[in-house]
Design goal:
The structure is a homodimer.
Chain A: E1 8-12, H1 17-28, E2 34-38, H2 42-55, E3 61-65, H3 68-72, E4 75-80, H4 92-113, E5 119-122, H5 127-138, E6 145-147, H6 150-164, E7 171-172, E8 175-177, E9 185-187, E10 192-193, E11 196-197, H7 198-201, H8 209-220, H9 222-230, H10 236-249, E12 259-263, E13 271-280, E14 283-287, H11 293-315, H12 325-328
Parallel strand pairs in A: 1-2, 1-4, 2-3, 4-5, 5-6
Antiparallel strand pairs in A: 7-10, 8-9, 10-11, 12-13, 13-14
Helix pairs in contact in A: 1-10, 4-5, 6-8
Chain lengths: 332, 332
């Protein structure tokens, strides 16, 4: 079976649950013949490497390293799940500051070791912010950096399918936009349930207004449900969806969900958030989502919330004031 | 993307590390549009189900149940990882009695709920014995039941590649036969390193006789290495290789490694062990491996070891004496 590319793909955080699943998914999809595992801790990563050797993937060159220079040299694609998880006693700000500092290091390593990188996908939380920081310090173009936002849309699709007792793939047009936190904007306008517009069904016996509110709540809290059932936050779905994203960027099958992208238009500026995106070998392009006045107002709120977090990063000294960004990355 | 089949595939032990990875691998490979998760414990399995929903696999009907009747009804393919795992310090043989009782239940459920099953793959250890017991009680034909044996061969390939400093796929013809325990027979006769027969290289500066003994040892202990590095026994590679097996059985890409199969020929009888196998929609066919006198003697030893374990099962009352097998399964 042919590979989609022979360009080097680096999985950052390859020793972790998400990273190891990304490695295996990328190899199973036969995305590239050249895959590098990178992690700051060796034993877990080497265990993943051994497992991949034992899979016997044909025609693949695998490397593994804890040295960022060795990992990033000649890299053309990077997916990074390499953040620190939130631990007991940590405030949200601690997580924000800690992971954004990691994202800054990621961006700086890209600028230093692989400025010719084609695309970076950032998936560690809060991804809207870590993605923004990594973009800033990487020197890459906005079209070259995306964040994982798809899980909110697939959770919406899943929640609606359960509610109406249909197969998940019979629910189409699901999307959430804006931030990837609980302040996301859930868009129902384009959703169809077996061909019938969702908004024609809301308020009927099949789905009350309160039910719809609950569905939106289930969507924003889909991640918490996994923690409840499996005893830890999700890893299979973030790994899978982010590898689907890089597949589209490599020229493979198109990606069906929104991605987080850098936005600078008449309404929203200097922020990373989920928009109506298209991923291809040209990178990520976006347009404004179309929705009801209520949905657009929700998107405004989500944007405002993200701006607040971004400004916090300025206050914390992790990123400079927006007016200074052009000095670090002229593409912004 | 089309599916290989619409027949029902059941993953037994779907809530576990191996099972959940098999579910995801089968869906990522788009083997079937009809996949059922089965486990005796609900929460973990439902967590896997949620994760798969969040992946948004298109066109797939997923079900999950703790009821064997619901799971097995109309099943055409089953892969079972549903045994108790091996813990650090335990040999595969330690697991014998407990997991063979589970295998008996698996076979009985197949006979009761899905006698039209096309193929069963058993991967919980000691797989040679659990596979044999499941075959006996399932009533299936020998060609319809296989066990996972591939990891020994991929570990051999990996060990040789490291030793000679070549890419893993440049080492060809790797195979181990007989049991999947430490008594396996490692065959080097057909191995080539970048086109050069391995046996021409052994005894040279590149690889002493002692080095070759060490390589064989590394092969038989490849699983222990994973426990050492990751703190638990392997899950990504057994999941991946067993899904590759069922893909071949479904008519997909051919499977490149030996599988465990029921053997009854002039030399070996009434045993399940790795042979030179071919997997296809016709099931599993095999021929005797070809090797040096020393290798064949090692295979005899491995067979004798398996017979001892099989006879232990008779003594323990888990299976009847061989003379009685035909009453339970006329195909044997």
């Amino acid at each position: 079976m042919a590979f989609l590319t022979d360009d080097k793909l680096v999985i950052v955080g390859a020793g972790g649950a998400i990273g190891s699943t990304m490695v295996q998914t990328a190899l199973t999809m036969r995305l590239t013949s050249n895959l590098c595992l990178y992690d700051v801790v060796a034993p877990g990563m080497m265990g993943v490497m051994e497992e991949m050797f034992h899979c016997g993937y044909d025609g693949v060159t695998l490397t593994a390293t804890t040295d960022p220079e060795e990992a990033f040299k000649d890299a053309k694609y990077i997916i990074s799940s390499g953040g620190a998880p939130r631990k007991a006693g940590m405030t949200r700000e601690d997580l924000l500051a800690g992971n954004c500092a990691i994202a800054r290091g990621l961006g700086e390593n890209i600028k230093k070791y692989c400025p010719d990188l084609k695309h970076l996908i950032v998936i560690f939380n809060p991804a809207d912010l870590t993605g923004l920081v990594a973009l800033l310090y990487s020197g890459l173009k906005p079209s070259q950096v995306t964040t994982l936002a798809a899980l909110d849309s697939t959770r919406l699709q899943s929640a609606i399918a359960k509610k109406f007792g249909v197969k998940q793939y019979e629910v189409t047009g699901c999307a959430t936009y804006g931030g990837h936190g609980e302040q996301m904007a859930v868009f129902g306008s384009a959703v169809k349930v077996k061909g019938t517009p969702l908004y024609d069904l809301i308020g009927t016996d099949a789905c009350s207004e309160a039910d719809w509110e609950q569905l939106k709540k289930d969507t924003t809290q889909g991640g918490a449900k996994i923690i409840e059932l499996r005893g830890r936050s999700s890893w299979q779905s973030p790994a899978y969806c982010s590898v689907e994203m890089i597949r589209a960027i490599m020229g493979g099958e198109s990606f069906r969900w929104p991605a987080g992208t850098y936005v600078k238009n008449e309404k929203y500026q200097n922020i990373m958030m989920a928009m109506d995106t298209t991923l291809s070998t040209a990178g990520c392009t976006y347009q404004m989502p179309k929705g009801t006045a209520e949905e657009m107002a929700k998107l405004d709120q989500s944007y405002a919330h993200l701006c607040k977090m971004r400004d916090e990063l300025v206050t914390l000294g992790i990123i400079p004031a927006i007016s200074e960004w052009g000095k670090i990355n002229p593409n912004l």
